[in-house]
Amino acid sequence: MQTIEITTPQNVTIEYELSSLKDRFFAYLIDLIVVFLTYYLFIFLVVSFAGDIIWESFTPLILFMLLPIGGFILYHLLSEIITSGQSLGKKALGLRVIRLDGEEPGIGDYLIRAVFLIIDWSLSGGTLAGLFIGSSTRKQRLGDLAAHTTVIRERSEVQFKLADILSIESMEAYQPIYPQVTKFSEQDMLLVKNLLYRIRQYPNEAHQQAVGEAVVYLCKILDINEPPRDKIGFLRTVIKDYIVLTR
Fold first, then answer.
1. CA distances, 156 to each of 1, 52, 142, 162 (Å)
2. Which tens digits make up the pLDDT trace of 170-196?
3. How many other C-beta atoms are found inside a 10 Å radius of the C-beta of residue 194?
4. 80 near 124, Cβ under 8 Å?
5. Model's pTM, two decimal places?
């Protein structure tokens, strides 16, 4: 699992998990299927209702070369603009485009990435994209290098089930400290557990700040006036209480 640290314009350093070549390939494949299914449906409908006019007005080059390539670029451009860096393929795989300087990618960035898709994936059969993504430290293809972007995972590869959230030998005699934890959802607790995992694996400043913000937020929901000094212990207690009160 490779990560990258991005410093936002507010000087906050955030660590992201970089997407793998496999994830990028399957995301591209999904997008390719969507585009070509749409293209063939469009051709079928147009030819069915106006076949003679189409064949007289457009050459096969436009219909079978320029139209699908232009549609592919337009699809990626519009989908990533509308969804802030997620085409349908990326959304399915839990991926997102980000800028390396912490700014939000702009229309120009998405356009560069969309145009370079033809070189990175289509014309080279994915060879160039594979070489660059596999060999670069930031998992960047040519389009990423030109646009100063990369692709990160929004869903961590480390997944937890609530039953595995803590190893607790016996909780029969355990008395919950924070009964208000029932206000939270299972997903909330999974996020807390993932945060505990990350601070243990990567005890950097960004994760320490994230822990502090999580504690402040939880205290607000739990009506705790002063956040506890032992932030990690507090988060573990919250999870333990949740398990006892909701199982």
1. 9, 52, 25, 16
2. 455 668 888 899 988 887 888 888 888
3. 16
4. no
5. 0.63
